[in-house]
Amino acid sequence: MKRLFNLGIIALIIVLSSACNKCKKLDCKNDATCEKREGICNCNYLFSGELCEEEIRTNYVGIYEGIISFPNPTPSNPFNTEQTDMSVNVFIQGSDAEGLGVNFVFWGTNYELTGDLTAEDTFTFNAKKMSGDVFGDITILSTSNGNFSRDALNSTINIRLEDTPQFPISLTFAGSK
Q1: d(CA 82, CA 23)
Q2: Is the pLDDT of residue 141 over 80?
Q3: DSSP assigned state of 153
Q4: Which terminal Cβ of the chain has fewer Cβ within 10 Å, N or C?
Q5: Cβ atoms within 10 Å of 32's Cβ, excluding its own
Q6: How many angstroms separate the CA atoms of 41 and 22, rounded?
Q7: Are the C-beta atoms of residues 134 and 148 closer than 8 Å to each other?
């Protein structure tokens, strides 16, 4: 009788512990963890969806129309800044879930930068060399960082001419889809 009672207790413990694990029926994707009591997938910052099956970066792909602000010093005002309309195209770069790219045209030069999401809504684009025709044959080093907020993009773009590194240019872009 005591043995039957002990087996009953063990069976009850097994049933109760398996009932608390609601993750058995879930198939969380992309290295997500599952909250056993709630039965929900906890996604890392690169994924969303019930099973963490959707890449966050797909939310940011598209054309952003906005304003770019940049320094344009004059002899009478060395702190002069200007603004102009600009389109920035955000695209998926590579097969890793964090890879993004942007391309845009500024002062007659085509820029294409690639980089990574560093948080759910934050990115950094790597330094890249490119040539510009507007001021003659020059080499441009460019990086960028910024963030997404719903359908908006805010970014700082740093440009440095390889031949004159003492004069870097910092641009800011704010736009939306």
Answers
A1: 55
A2: no
A3: E
A4: N
A5: 18
A6: 10
A7: no
Question: Across all residues in the chain, what is the average pLDDT?
Answer: 83
Please say whether the beta carbons of 141 and 125 come within 8 A. no
Contact yes or no for 47/54 (Cβ under 8 A): yes
Amino acid 15: pLDDT: 46
Q: Is 39 exposed, middle or buried (0-12, 13-18, 19+ CB in 10 A)?
A: middle
Distance CA 20, CA 176 (A): 45
Q: DSSP state, 58? A: G
At residue 93, the 3 state secondary structure works out as: coil
pLDDT of residue 71: 85
What does pTM read for this prediction?
A: 0.77
Sorted by where each starts, the structural domains of the chain and their CATH numbers stand as: 2-52 (no CATH), 57-176 (2.40.128)
* pLDDT (tens digit per residue) in 33-50: 998 888 899 999 999 999
Please state the rounded mean pLDDT for residues 156-164.
78
Beta strands in 133-163 (DSSP E): 138-149, 152-161
Residue 152 has φ and ψ, to the nearest 5°, of: -115, 150
Query: Which residues fall within 8 angstroms of residue 51, CB to CB, at 6 or more apart?
Result: 26, 27, 28, 29, 32, 41
Q: How far apart are CA 47 and CA 95, in angstroms?
A: 14
What CA–CA distances, in Å, run from 72 to 21, 82, 110?
62, 6, 19
